[in-house]
C-alpha cells in the first residue's frame, strides 16, 4: 500500500488511513477508544511518571513520544454511595 506511491506522506501518518483506503472500522475503533479512556479516567488517577518532558520525534507532520511516556496510575478512592 505505501510502496506503490498511491498515497501521500500525510495519509501514512493518519491512524485509519485516508482516501479510498480509509479503514472501515474507524468509527468503531474511535468509539471503543473513547469508552476505554472514559473508564480509565473515572477509576484511576493518572500522572506523568517523570517530571521531565518526554522527548519527541516527528513522523511526517505528526509528533509523538520518542520512546513512550512513563505514567503513574493509582486507583481512585471512591466515596460511600458511589
SS-based class: alpha+beta
Order of helices and strands: HHEEEE
Shape: flat
Number of strands: 4
Instruction: Assess the beta-strand content as a share of residues.
Output: 15-25%
Helix content: 25-40%
Mean pLDDT rating: 78
What topology, given as strand order, has the largest sheet?
A: 1-4
- Residue runs with pLDDT of under 50 for 5 or more positions: none
Measured between the Cα atoms of the first and last residue, the distance is 49 Å
Largest sheet, described in full?
2 strands, antiparallel
Radius of gyration: 18 Å
Total number of helices? 2
What does this structure look like?
The structure is a single chain. The protein is an alpha+beta fold and 82 residues long. Helices cover 28% and strands 22% of the residues. It is built from two helices and four strands; from the N terminus they run ααββββ. The chain has helices at residues 9-13, 26-43, and strands spanning 44-48, 56-59, 62-65, 71-75. A two-stranded antiparallel sheet has the order 1-4. It has a two-stranded antiparallel ribbon with strand order 2-3. A hairpin with a 2-residue loop joins strand 2 and strand 3. The longest helix is centred in the middle third of the chain and has 18 residues, at 26-43. The radius of gyration is 18 Å and the shape is flat. The protein starts with 8 loop residues before the first helix and ends in a 7-residue tail after the last strand.
Amino acid at each position: 500500500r505505501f510502496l506503490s506511491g498511491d498515497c501521500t506522506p500525510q495519509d501514512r501518518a493518519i491512524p485509519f488511513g485516508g482516501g479510498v483506503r480509509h479503514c472501515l472500522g474507524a468509527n468503531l475503533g474511535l468509539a471503543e477508544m473513547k469508552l476505554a479512556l472514559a473508564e480509565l479516567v473515572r477509576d484511576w488517577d493518572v500522572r506523568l511518571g517523570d517530571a521531565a518532558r518526554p522527548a519527541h520525534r516527528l513522523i511526517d507532520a505528526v509528533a509523538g513520544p520518542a520512546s513512550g511516556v512513563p505514567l503513574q496510575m493509582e486507583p481512585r478512592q471512591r466515596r460511600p454511595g458511589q
